[in-house]
Design brief:
Largest sheet: 16 strands, mixed
Helix content: 10-25%
Distance between the termini: 32 Å
Oligomer: single chain
Shape: globular
Structural class: mainly beta
Number of helices: 4
Strand content: over 45%
Number of strands: 23
């Protein structure tokens, strides 16, 4: 596996990508692909004039075996050590971090049922594609896959950070978003924002081959599991525009209203949700029913389920299942630990850290129910 370093030149309407170097002599590489947040990377490499010239902030790091994820160098540090030598620590995040440079402005309001894919693409277009001054050069809307993106909603959003808001939507519906490079011609590239969904490969389905990580199959080297009910919130009181008792309000819960010891309440201040919207250049009021639906959607965003997390290390020498071939980040798999009699029949891989160093390659997934 080699890493590739590209120089990115962004003009008004074009994005030029030129290959500056190919490197396979790094000391270590961490490549962390995340499903509900922006992935990160870190390269640890000898510090010398050539590498200092190559690894500059603003450049792109790719891998010859991964054409879906590209990292933007955001930090370069030099560390000197009389015994271990001089090293560069090069780190950054994947290209989705470019959307963190924008907030959502002006207000985007969807008072009729609209698919989440159309909502996200409209908001991205308005804030990072179509506006001349706010355009991210080379950014285009890419493919959409997964039934979760066809779910419909009514919502209003304003002033939120664009990248963080997208991942909030992703976690709510079970999808993910990623920006990858795609060659147009020569050195001209475009950055494609793609929306997708993981695949169910657990034992609870029969359409796809089952992926099972188990100490009984010797493909699970280490295992940790935690469950925390203290963080959950399952019933929201949502208050919008107005003052005192005149504030518009509603409640939200998922399914039947919880009661007694099963009820965990949260207050949601939604005064920022406007009761007017711009339509064809005119300001028009939002109906009472439509406004209540917007408040409910905000309440839905604040619902927090009991926290369960599982982290394991997968045996690399096992040829039973291959990462990025048999399964991917975002997929649902089965994890069991026979010694403890614990089985998680359907659990999602929400992150995967690939580590390359003198000891070889290791995989550390993060799971979430």
């Amino acid at each position: 596996m080699q890493i590739e370093i590209y120089k990115m030149t962004a003009n008004e309407n074009t994005l030029t990508i030129t290959l500056e170097a190919i490197c396979d002599s790094f000391s270590s590489l961490l490549w962390d692909v995340e499903y509900y947040s922006c992935g990160v990377f870190e390269v640890y490499i000898a510090a010398n004039p050539q590498n200092i010239e190559i690894f500059q902030t603003g450049r792109i790091v790719g891998r010859d075996d991964d054409k879906e994820h590209f990292g933007l160098i955001e930090s370069v540090k030099i560390e000197t050590d009389a015994e271990d030598g001089d090293y560069l620590i090069v780190s950054g995040r994947f290209l989705m971090c470019l959307l963190e440079r924008r907030i959502i402005y002006p207000t985007c309001s969807f008072t009729s049922q609209t698919s989440y894919s159309d909502v996200v693409n409209f908001v991205v277009t308005q804030n990072a594609v179509s506006d001349d001054n706010r355009r991210i050069p080379g950014l285009s809307l890419g493919s959409i896959s997964g039934d979760c993106w066809e779910q419909k909603t009514k919502l209003q959003v304003s002033y939120a950070n664009l990248m963080e808001w997208i991942y909030t939507v992703c976690e709510k519906i079970g999808g993910t978003a990623n920006i990858r490079l795609s060659k147009v011609n020569g050195e001209q590239y475009e950055m494609l924002l793609e929306l997708s969904e993981g695949t169910d490969r657990s034992i609870l389905q029969s359409e796809n081959p089952h992926i099972i990580f188990s100490d009984g199959y010797t493909n699970l080297l280490s295992f940790s599991y935690s469950s925390d009910i203290s963080v959950q919130q399952n019933f929201a009181y949502v208050l919008g525009k107005g003052d005192g008792e005149e504030r518009k309000r509603t409640t939200y819960c998922d399914g039947d209203e919880p009661s007694f010891l099963q009820r965990f309440e949260v207050y949601v201040d939604a005064k920022d949700i406007a009761d007017e919207q711009q339509e064809n250049g005119e300001t028009k009021p939002i109906s009472e029913n439509e406004y209540i639906e917007l408040l409910k959607e905000r309440g839905k965003e604040k619902i927090v389920l009991p926290l369960t997390a599982s982290e394991s290390q997968i045996a690399m020498q096992s040829t039973q299942f291959r990462y990025n071939s048999d399964y991917f980040v975002g997929d649902y798999v089965t994890v069991e630990h026979q010694r403890f009699g614990l089985i998680q029949p359907k659990i999602q891989i929400i992150g995967m850290i690939e580590s390359f160093d003198q000891n070889g390659r290791s995989l550390t997934p993060t799971f979430k129910e």
